[in-house]
Amino acid sequence: MIDVHAHLTEFNDILEVIRRAKEAGLEHIIISIIDPSEINRAKEIISLDPKFLHLTIGFDPTNLSEEEFSKFELLIEKESIVGIGEVGLDYYYIRDETQRSIQEKLFRRSIRLALKRNLPIIVHSRSAGRRALEILYSEGADRVIMHAFDGKSGHANEAVKRGYYFSIPTSVVHSQQKQKLVRALPIESMVLETDSPVLSPIRGTRNEPANLIYALKKVAEIKGISEEEVNRITTYNAKKIFNFFK
Ligand SMILES: [Zn+2]
To answer: What is the pLDDT of residues 94-133, one digit of tens each?
Structure first.
């Protein structure tokens, strides 16, 4: 299993969290940061086990500061990363049209950075699934993971035709919308994530990568295939998009 999206800089008991993740059978964790200030902590964590832990650098979609965005662009240039993310749109928190247009501009710049460096992009699209996909198409994005997608399954299926992946979070255990998404999408387009410390399978508790098994089990149940098969295919998908086959 590979957790393609976890915010491990939020954890103080990181050694225990990593140990439990390995015990649960995880092969890799992709750490996501969304603020340039997290970079040192992220690198410190990755140095604990650089074969197991990998970095994607993103930019909080609710942060509309040009100055902060420049810092993010600089980090993308100089740090060793396996992808860009999470970046994207958040229409839940950003409701003002002028602010949304700034958000879109920064998202487009992030996509171009990913294309320029030939890196996969992990996309946040809260309450903005359709618009985020339209922007990705118009920019010609090809290596894409739509993370915790809350849009319509029909729009997701259109993206699948273009080879985009969808990461199914642990909250699929209780989220009707995520369950619907799993029913609608082919397993060949899925990867798994926890989005730790949020989107826990058990409401009101802190999430951690070891919980990824909950997402795997729920996907297996919905698709009517074995857990081994879900593990094999989603792990393969994650390795493929992050270029782990070398
Ligand atoms: Zn996240």
So the answer is: 999 999 999 999 999 999 999 999 999 999 999 999 999 9
Residue range 223-242: average pLDDT? 98
Distance 23 CA to ligand 1 centre (A): 23
Residues 8/46, Cβ–Cβ less than 8 Å: no
| CATH superfamily, region 2-241 | Metal-dependent hydrolases (3.20.20.140)
The reported pTM is 0.97
Question: Cα(97) to centroid of ligand 1, in Å?
Answer: 24
Length of the chain in residues, anyone? 246
Sign of CA dihedral 124, 129, 135, 138: positive
pLDDT band (50, 70, 90) for residue 181 = very high
Q: How far apart are CA 151 and CA 127, in angstroms?
A: 7
State the DSSP code for 179. H
* Dist. CA 5 → ligand 1 center (Å): 6
Spell out the domain ranges in the chain: 2-241
HSE value, Cβ hemisphere, 13 Å, CA-based, for 105: 11
